Amino acid sequence: MKLQKITDRILMLPGDHYTDRPNLYYVKGDARSLAVDAGASPAHVEAFYAALRAEGLPLPEVTAITHWHWDHTFGMCAVNGRTYASAGTFANLFCMQKWAWDRPSMQQRELKGQDIAFCNMCIMREYAAEPSRIRVALPDSVLITDETIDLGGITARLLNAPSPHSEDQLSVYIPEEKALFVGDGDCSDHYRCGGMFQEESLAKWIRFLEGVDHTHHLEGHGEPTDKEEALAYLHSELALCRREAAGRALVKEYRRDYIRKLRSHVGHAPLHITGCSVLLENEKGELLLQKRRDNGCWAPPGGALEMGETAENAARRECWEEAGVVAGELRLFGVYTGEDRYIYYPNGDVCYCTLVCFTCKDYVGDPMQNTEEAVEHRFFARHSLPENLNRCDERSIRDWAAGTSSVVCR
Fold it and tell me: What element of type H or E holds 105?
């Protein structure tokens, strides 16, 4: 991929949406050059350096890291020269150095809220499904305060300015070029805020940007833009954030134990919920079922989708909570609706449940026995399923036993 010219001194290697590689930037001084961000992997760094060599440009002697996220830092182990980052970035990477990089460990971190599914998916793509090749490096220089680096003819100001995307934000300002590199600073926070902006951090970030005299506004994943356009977008998000503040407070109140709180308002009246289940197969092609404690029927691990949760994450969570196994690759098996989806509970509650069902053949762990929700877990062959299947799961189990290969939707 060729470099894109921003100014006579600034070039950009465009990112890749498939693997979530960010844009990598090159700033050419008369004495030395600087790169903004280290990229997603050594392969990403090499692609950047190859593009520089093709233009006859020297490799950067300095690399400034905008924040700790994997796609901006996992190439640090392969960069030329010194790396600079904020203290917050150092702290996060120091913790990540202790992480195990294999699929089960990555999925366990998802369940614990330490990482998110989108990042793990892109990591698997970037590293060709071999995350064990990841090497998390620490920055050479840790900035407690702002710092100015003389590149010869131009200067680079490394500015500590927490953004709504990440508190460890380090922005790079080239005053002679009126260029500001903001990394992912204009984006919302997917780790702490579920992909939403927080009013206070967004307003503070806007004030920071308004105080920097720049024309070129250079982002981690977006196209180069200008200060005016960037601020117009952020102000619109701030206005939306303020309008939604009351609604978000209500969501936060109801998110935990949602169904029980809703029942306090509607009593036993029917509720429409979404359930997620997983048909787990062992190496013999047998299906894992659990004997439910509430009705004595057999069903796959599964449960209700929580607000703000993806169906896949809900399925993984239920596998872990109910069976004690970590699900690997999930494939959509079917979506089930219809008259048989009503659930009548002994206490009089009624629910209508749309079921999203997945299959999984590469789980990790041995199923637990005698848990809070299940008396036992047992594997069954296709031809020897138990008779007392849970009514709401029976269609998906029968479809699996029949060898259904295409996605079911009925």
Answer: helix 103-112
